[in-house]
Amino acid sequence: MCGIVGYVGRSEAAPILLDGLRRLEYRGYDSAGVAIVDGDKVETRKCAGRIAALGKLMAEKPPSGTFGISHTRWATHGKPTDQNAHPHFDASGKLALVHNGVIENYQALKDQLMRDGDRKFSSETDTEVLAHLIGKLYDDSIAEATAQDSNGNATNAPPLNQRGLLVDAVRAALRQVIGTYGIALVHSDVPDFLVGARRGSPLVLGVGKEENFLASDVSAIVAYTRDAVYLNDFDVVAVERDKFEISSVAGEAGSYQLSKVEFSDADIKKGDYPHYMLKEIFEQPGSVRDAMRGRLSSEECTAKLGGLNMSPAQLRDVGRVVLTGCGTALHAAMVGEYLIEALAQIPTEVEFASEFRHRNTPMTRDTLVFAISQSGETADTLGALRESRRKGYRTLGICNNVASTIARESDGGVYMHAGPEIGVAATKSFTAQVTIMTAIGLLLGRMRHLSTSEGTRIIDALNALPTQIEEVLKLSDEIKAIAKKYANAPGMLFFGRQFHFPIALEAALKMKEITYLFAEGHPSAELKHGIIALVRPELPSVFIAPDDAVFSKNLNNIEQVRARKGPVIAVTSGAGADRLAKIADDIITIPTAPDYVSPILTVIPLQLLAYHLAVELGRDVDKPRNLAKSVTVE
Ligand code: M6R
Hints:
With about 625 residues, this protein is α/β, with parallel strands linked by helices. It folds into 3 domains: about 5-145 and about 155-265, Glutamine Phosphoribosylpyrophosphate, subunit 1, domain 1 (4-Layer Sandwich), CATH 3.60.20.10; about 270-475, 3-Layer(aba) Sandwich (Rossmann fold), CATH 3.40.50; about 475-625, Rossmann fold (3-Layer(aba) Sandwich), CATH 3.40.50.10490. About 35% of the residues lie in helices and about 20% in strands. It has 19 helices and 26 strands. Strand 9 and strand 10 form a beta hairpin. The relative contact order is 0.09. The mean pLDDT is about 95. It binds 5-amino-5-deoxy-1-O-phosphono-D-mannitol. 5-amino-5-deoxy-1-O-phosphono-D-mannitol binds near residues 373 and 425.
């Protein structure tokens, strides 16, 4: 949510910053801006709209300089306008700041600044208040140091440590802030110097050769360096061309760990695909394989998840599971609930992370909590994780982004290994999450009553998935034709039972996110309890009805829709295709698979349906209206 890129080195900063912003555009795309220090002035270009608009502005009047900061915004305080676009400046116009997060007490800070002197604010943002505050504290400390100099010691006084004073001012300001921030700033009096800090919003330092970077996400800088330091909350980093220093907001010296970024620039390129979303849908044979690679033991007929950091006895004694997350991750959790209860018979609850963190969910001592998040940075999920740990529960993360905050703050967990997901609509991360849920169900089941033959059956089914997904992907053109046929539909209803009820929810979410059409998911049997009132000839109902134990029940519901002239699209398998031939208007036939892994196959045609319909409607698939990839604010 919002993207930050900073650069200090020997190259021109402008192309590097713009390139980084393009790679981060999926994090927010309301407005964008850069500030580059050129001699003793800060050159800024910023505007509402996409990065392309900023690029045009920069091409018309290229800013020059070898250090600067930049930002792509997802509006929280203030509309997406030129004025509200970052960077924001202090009163002197010499300090420029970009910020992700929300400063909750910005009004109080602003009032205090106004009391101290007449100040003009040119935006409605909380960020500008922070820029003024840091600028004032810095100016005050310079004034104080200069006064001492002129007090008789001018000649022999040590040179003014502007860098140190600027970092001190940042620290002093952040100690007054209530809220979340990832920030980067420059000051035109302090050459070749960036300051960054974080609390609740990710910030990473990229370490190069005679150049260093700041970014809210490594994907912005991976083309330049794969050596990274993931900053912790309350870290303040002072960055020069050839060195950096990390300390805390409180002023203590900090430690750090240099990590190698796992993916390369090539991994985040769209290649020949028209959209990232389509690329990521087609990556699923590989990403599902990677999610289970090295984690299935045919010998012991179970899953091996060493990252959980739990002994066999601890795994055996789990009495309750709570799965938490948001959006797509929550839907994966819902599949997980069915899986864990079916395979391990352990009572499992799914909690919206945003609700869990604010309510008093009854927990038992033997409760195991999982926080599921692709980005590992979602504020609500992070809040749930912290609340659960605060209460003393073992809390594990299921994340895609290595070294993300959730991954670092949990007691252990499982990485998805899905590779970078750039499309705002999550696809491959969902199937990776469900694959991991299956592995967890298998592991917990095998610690209890699940037999070796059942374990083997599940492992075989999981191993068969990548090839079966390839079969499903071959249906893309067929699904595209169905999408065209329903291009004028006012929306879609999605229905599924058991493991496929969460798939109905996920399919509806994908449809809403990228087509902007009305879409809802329901358990199939709920149809007759009210939803049937919506059924009419213009509104298609999508049934997820593979050839399983509840197929005939789904068939009843499909008949109920047909009786009211509602069009039916069915996702089915095996004998289901023949039985639906005369009933459904459109049939998507996928390979047959056992219940436990079937949701991974049924969701993919529905990702494709949403995708093709969105393209047909001319939507901006990778950057849908109002959304951002990672929601780091509450
Ligand atoms: O990064 P996370 O998995 O924590 O993100 C959670 C949701 O914000 C995310 O799944 C969102 O619903 C996506 N846009 C779904 O496509």
